[in-house]
Amino acid sequence: MTGLATRLAVEQKSAEVTDWAARIGWVIGLALFVALVYWLMREGWKWRGTLQNDLPELPTAPDDPGAARLSLSGQYHGSTTAGQWLDRLVAHGLGNRSRVELTLTDAGLDVVRPGAADFFVPAGQLREARLDKGIAGKVLTEGGLLVVTWAHGDRLIDSGFRSDRAAEHNEWVDAVNSMIKTDSTEGAER
Question: Which keywords label this protein (predicted)?
Fold first, then answer.
């Protein structure tokens, strides 16, 4: 039986390629198609940035933001128009995913992103912090994403972060929301 199987294996072989020009043409055509799709995606990203030109420059951290209440290292997943988790903002580098170092101080939220534009959210511009499951093309388990809502110009923006230690998310939500309540209570007393 093994002799028959060996003979069949030796006798069978692939058909020889006879039309190399057609195969090379198909490979080149496929490579050009992939390049075209990539170029169209890049142009769409640039066009979205052009449409968002009305977004003001991002604020930078003050020279002395004060003592850190909380700090976090993890991933920045992007920013969207508040309440519209698929409407990604790409102007000023807000659409670029990156590592992040977050620091919450009395002055606000300092977002340091190696390889991308850093920005600062003043305490008076913070609106809400919550746990969510997705933002602009990134979907996680329920509560796996820390989303901070903040005002910038005439827009409300949701920015999504994921800590390297997900257990920190609840502490961040409580701290940011209590900071917002304290700030609004002080503003009402004046």
Answer: Membrane, Transmembrane, Transmembrane helix
Q: Over the stretch 68-106, which tens digit does the pLDDT of each residue have?
A: 889 999 999 888 888 887 788 888 888 888 999 999 998
The reply to whether 84 falls in a domain is yes
The 3-class secondary structure across the chain, one letter per residue, is: CHHHHHHHHHHCCCCCCCCHHHHHHHHHHHHHHHHHHHHHHHHHHHHHHHHCCCCCCCCCCCCCCCCEEEEEEEEEEEEEECCCCCCEECHHHCCCCEEEEEEEECCEEEEECCCCCCEEEEHHHEEEEEEECEECCEECCCCCEEEEEEEECCEEEEEEEEECCHHHHHHHHHHHHHHHHHHHHHHHHC
CATH number, domain of 144, equals 2.30.29.30
pLDDT digits (tens, 9 = 90+) for 147-186: 999 998 888 999 999 999 888 889 999 999 988 877 655 5
Domain assignment of residue 33, yes or no = no
Number of domains in the chain: 1
Residue span of the structural domain in which 115 resides: 68-189
